[in-house]
Fold this protein.
Amino acid sequence: MNNEQRTGPNYFTFPQGFLWGSATSAHQVEGNNVRSDWWAWEQAGRVKEPSGLACDHYRRFAQDFDLAVELGHNAHRFSIEWARIEPEESQWDDEALAHYVEVVRALRARGLEPIVTLHHYTSPQWLARQGGWTNPKVVDRFARYTEKVVDALGEFVRYWVSINEPMVYVRMHYLQGVGPPGEKDFAQALRVIEHLIRAHAASYHVLHEACRGHDPQPLVGVAHLVPAFRPCRRWWPMDRWASGITDRIFNRALLDTITEGRWSVPGVATWNVPEAKATLDFLGVNFYGRQFIRWIPMPGQWPGVTCDLGHHPRQVPERTGLGWDVSPEAFFEVLVEYRRRLRLPLLVTENGTYMLDDARRWSFILRHVQAMARAIQAGAHVIGYCCWSLLDNFEWAEGFGPRFGIVEVDYATQQRLVRESGRCYAEICRSNRVLLDGA
Ligand code: FCB
């Protein structure tokens, strides 16, 4: 390829300092997370297979970060395990805290910007015994935990994600019952959403207070799964209505509350959470595809948030190994739309896929990065992209079957093998640009 082509119009160069990396979460990679509610759930036989040693990342993190560097990354998103920091209520494990300080230092030493998530689906067992996220006390507990973490890590970390996918968390754990505590209770779910919002707000204030005077200031966001909701049957008015209301509830309820401090759908619910107003410095966007909404009459319940997902219309042309829709176009639309809605920077905290064929994984990543480039051209302010995931890992209720890694893990030997998709993605990370086909 000659020089002229390299600098030609078909390339999009990302803004200087753009964050390129991948993401993991503690429970999915660390191994032996014995104090968390997910561990207890697994031991009770509620999943296909238990997480066990997972990727043994708790011990192998330095080697894994070496791989991230080899793959051209300059950032890395990971999560802290609350159950390790506070294994029993008010008992703080200094060794565990020191471990995460070491993790963050290891990232910094390699030129990887840490993006730290405080809650990624798992909670300590002691909290679960107190009613978990249905108990209003969780808000203070979470604020205290944040304080401990920021005391230890604050000087090294700029990007914070308070809670990963609050709405998915509620859906999985309190409506579908596929994660602890396995509830299917709409009233409980509503309570949990409110507590997640209040906990986010409390942690936002703790982080800013603790880092007052830091230069640069911390940036705190949530990682929100932003599905593009679409009517299952486009011609059916009730599906169109249900898709709109689902967007309003699943996407807007959370975001309006943490930007405006208030959210309401007449006849459904109203939240006034003034302390949550303006508690978002950036939006973490997790994007996997569209979700198709089919209207099913469920008296007293909300569509989408409940269980009418997963009815893919026949016209969905491309699916992942888990049957999820693939739509880079919808990713473009989401980035442009959320920039317009929120006027905040967007950080893609997760995007990636499980495909049986790695070439298809690469095609997925490439087309989503191209869509992101076009969204930036169209005015979206995107500051980084984290591919899900650095490593194959424990995919919750699905177990180890679905492999999302750009690095393959042989669970028998814990050996890592970089996939071709990881090498191709490295090209983009290193050059900070992508070829836009058809441009
Ligand atoms: C996201 C979760 C992440 C992983 C991916 C595949 O919704 O945040 O932990 O399970 O899906």
In short: Residues 17-224+327-434 form a domain with the TIM Barrel fold (CATH 3.20.20.80). Residues 1-5 have pLDDT under 50 and may be disordered. DSSP finds 14 helices and 16 strands in the chain.
